[in-house]
Amino acid sequence: MKQIVVVLAVLISAFGFSQDAQSLLDDVYNNTKSYENISIDFKYVLQNTSENINQETRGDVVIEGDKYVLNILGVTQIFDGKTLYTISPEDEEVTISSDNTEEESTITPSKMLSFYKDGYTYELDIVQNVKGRKIQYVKLNPIDTNSEIKEVLLGIDANTKHIYNLIEIGKNGTKTTLTVNSFKTNEPISKTLFTFDKSKYGDYYINRLD
């Protein structure tokens, strides 16, 4: 689950070759922050050939400011800005924890558009044509030499300035890819979407970590 969140937070012609990596990332960040909320449906792939691992699944996330609701692998995470609720129907368990801002290696969905601002160097990488879409890649390298991450490739749609995909390559050979299937903005959402309703989980075991 942590690997998915790390990927979760966690892009030539339309931009022009003269634009550097930082200004490109800032353009994407500022463009995205202008929306009241974002709804993303995505495909998640985890691969490690040496360990014979090839896992593929789909998920979705709704983000509004620092708040988010993430659904993947049958688990729901609700973050209301202060507290994170991880709901596992299979285990009939709800894990409650505070926002772990001290763990810098964790890229939560609410930070997936700004994680690059600290801890990485970046440079423009290749350009690809994906079904008629110009995708400019930016390569991000961790400054911390002890990081488990070797590099991150962020693909940006040159027309919309939205994230197309994020590829994280670990030093252990693991490659995780998050590809955006749909990117919707300013959708009408319930006022209680980011509120945990304990009454819905009366039979669940409540695991408080703090």
Element layout with pairings:
Blueprint: H1 2-7, H2 21-33, E1 38-48, E2 53-64, E3 67-72, E4 75-79, E5 83-88, E6 93-98, E7 120-130, E8 133-142, E9 149-157, E10 163-170, E11 175-185, E12 205-208
Summarize the structure.
The protein is mainly beta and 210 residues long. The protein has 2 helices and 12 strands; from the N terminus they run H-H-E-E-E-E-E-E-E-E-E-E-E-E.
Outline the structure in words:
With 210 residues, this protein is mostly beta strands. The chain has one domain (2-10, 16-208): outer membrane lipoprotein receptor (LolB), chain A (Clam), CATH 2.50.20.10. It has 2 helices and 12 strands. It has helices at residues 2-7, 21-33; strands at 38-48, 53-64, 67-72, 75-79, 83-88, 93-98, 120-130, 133-142, 149-157, 163-170, 175-185, 205-208. A 12-stranded mixed sheet has the order 7-8-9-10-11-1-2-3-4-5-6-12. A hairpin with a 4-residue loop joins β1 (38-48) and β2. The longest helix is centred in the first third of the chain and has 13 residues, at 21-33. The two termini are 19 Å apart. The relative contact order is 0.24. Residues 9-18 and 101-106 have low confidence and may be disordered.
The named CATH superfamily: Lipoprotein localisation LolA/LolB/LppX
Give me the number of helical elements: 2
The overall number of domains is 1
Please indicate the percent range of residues in DSSP E strands (runs of 2 or more): over 45%
The order of strands across the largest sheet is 7-8-9-10-11-1-2-3-4-5-6-12
Mean pLDDT: 83
Terminal residue distance: 19 Å
CATH architecture classification name: Clam
- What is the share of helical residues? under 10%
Give the quaternary arrangement of the chains.
Answer: single chain
